Amino acid sequence: MAYIPVMTNSYRTSVFAASIAGSDPSAGAGLQIDLKTMNACGVWGMTVVTALTAQNANHVRGIVGVDPVFVQSQIKTLEEDFPISCYKTGMLGNAPIVRAVAKALPDAVPIVIDPVLISTRAYRLTDDSGAKALVERLIPRAAVVTPNIPEAEILSGITIMDAESMEEAACWFLDSGARAVVLKGGHATFRKGVDVFLDRDGTRLLSGNVYPFSDVHGSGCCFASAITAYIALGCPVFSAVKLAKEFVDMAIRYAVEYAPGRFTMNPGWREHREYMLKFVV
Predict the structure, then answer these.
(1) pLDDT in tens for each of the 281 residues of the chain?
(2) How remote is the C-alpha of 168 from its chain's centroid?
(3) Which residues, listed in sequence order, are joined to residue 111 by a DSSP beta bridge?
């Protein structure tokens, strides 16, 4: 059973986590879904904006990156007032922003790296220089990296065609300095719904349900944000990943059709489930 934290209204005992990512005005992914997820998991979510996007349920029409100096200023300003327990990075866009984030992040705070490179509909969100900087500057500092298969292929250069090559790609992230990696199996045809978790203690497989929804918007953001929240609450990394997978499973089960034929994550699934149970006799 998933851990369900109790929220508190006391500043002194609040737990803080922050997402460093791009804004999705449709609120199906990016900073908006990150905040919803962190709140649902029991932490006070905060944001550092790296990019503004013009997108809806089907298309990314344009991206405007935030000045790297201002990205850095956002992080430093938050650090002045708040004891942030874990950071999550999502869409960073380019190398200057990656370097600014790496320079501003405190050394002692765990970081969850969601290497957002391409949107669900194949729009490039982080350029090649940004991907290279991510490997050089942030992945070596990661408590855990959460790539999907296309992202893992781009970053590692390994073509993932079967379980063996998937585990080889996961090993590449550890060799690049990450303390752990969970390589998501949502795009796999050979072992559908099975994620590969790898840390210094070895490889573990995490199986999940496969639902009849394709391209659920925001699933990667939701997963990484849930991991971030559970780490902020004090869970070890593997426990945080397991709890996040349970959370995301339900967020997909109760996914919202927020445009015709397009589904997005539902971090508020607990309230949704309780509401629906009222009608079950």
Answers:
(1) 444 454 445 555 589 999 999 999 999 999 999 999 999 999 999 999 999 999 988 888 999 999 999 999 999 999 999 999 999 999 999 999 999 999 999 999 999 999 998 876 667 788 889 999 999 999 999 999 999 999 999 999 999 999 999 999 999 999 999 999 999 987 777 777 789 999 999 999 998 888 776 578 899 999 999 999 999 999 999 999 999 999 999 999 999 888 888 889 999 988 765 555 554 44
(2) 22
(3) 87
Q: What angle do helix axes 30-41 and 237-253 make, rounded to 10 degrees?
A: 110
Structure tokens at 151: 């992202």
- Backbone phi, psi, residue 39, to 5°: -65, -45
Q: What is the arrangement of strands in the sheet containing 44-55, beginning at the earlier edge strand? A: 60-65, 44-55, 16-23, 84-89, 111-113, 144-145, 180-183, 194-199, 202-207
Q: Please name each of the domains of the chain with its CATH number.
A: 11-277 (3.40.1190.20)
Q: What are the DSSP E strand ranges found in the chain?
A: 16-23, 44-55, 60-65, 84-89, 111-113, 144-145, 180-183, 194-199, 202-207, 256-259, 262-264
DSSP secondary structure code for residue 184 in this structure: -
Distance between CA 153 and CA 281 in Å, rounded? 48
Question: Are residues 120 and 52 in contact, defined by beta-carbon separation less than 8 angstroms?
Answer: no
CA 152/CA 173 separation, integer angstroms: 9
Contact call for residues 173 and 167 (beta carbons, < 8 A): no
